[in-house]
Specification:
With 217 residues, the chain is of the alpha+beta class. It is built from 5 helices and 11 strands. The radius of gyration is 17 Å and the shape is globular.
Length: 217
């Protein structure tokens, strides 16, 4: 069972990463799915996407240490939630890794991305002017993915659509290292939330996550 990382990252908050190397049939055998979930699974045509979808649900059951049915639904903004459960969750996938953060008393957001040079072609879409000036030219892709994943994690924490990554999400310029904690801000229409985002380079992937006691204060 390739649960490659499980750690407590805050009070009542766990993070897990699953390396996907099992076949579809194995994942299916580990799950109890209702009719709507089976329909959703059948609608996913890409085999890799199917594996990601299934692995994230196995990861939830593994992290919560249960073999009971878990009713997972997305709200109107696409944010996943476990029905009739005290846990808040956030899920991310990239290639053969699935990542999850789950908490009883904090709002959470997580992102994991495989690192490729293509990020440089779209950097202007998510960087503000101050962030552009701080990029380490020796580690451009890693630095850009740290900022992108941090903003994705904040976006998932916020839990609503229509955020402009270059205008409404920002990070304080930082010196890139392979792991660390950076400061970020969500700011839109009078809403302001300052958060700390943890990040970590895992082989050729970048992981970022954020947890906060409340997004409404």
């Amino acid at each position: 069972m390739p649960l490659i990382q499980k750690q407590r990252v805050a009070d009542n908050t766990l993070l897990g990463i699953w390396h996907i190397d099992e076949p579809l049939d194995w994942f299916s055998s580990q799950l109890l799915l209702n009719q709507s979930e089976n329909l959703m699974l059948d609608s996913i045509r890409n085999p890799g996407r199917k594996l990601q979808w299934l692995s994230s649900r196995v990861l939830i059951r593994t992290m919560l240490e249960t073999d009971q049915f878990i009713h997972l639904e997305n709200d109107l903004n696409g944010k996943p939630a476990i029905v009739n459960s005290p846990f808040n969750i956030s899920i991310s996938h990239s290639r053969n890794l699935s990542a999850l953060i789950v908490s009883k008393d904090q709002e959470v957001g997580i992102d994991i991305e495989i690192i490729t040079p293509k990020i440089e072609r779209v950097a202007n879409k998510f960087l503000n002017e101050e962030e552009k000036l701080c990029i380490d030219k020796r580690r451009t892709a890693e630095h850009l993915y740290t900022i992108w994943s941090a903003k994705e994690a904040m976006y998932k924490l916020y839990g609503k659509r229509q955020l402009d990554f270059s205008k409404h999400l920002s990070v304080v310029p930082f010196f890139y290292q392979e792991s660390g904690v950076i400061s970020g801000k969500i700011e839109k229409d009078g809403y302001i939330k300052e958060v700390k985002i943890s990040y970590q380079k895992i082989n050729n992937y970048m992981l970022a996550y954020v947890c906060h006691k409340s997004i409404n204060t």
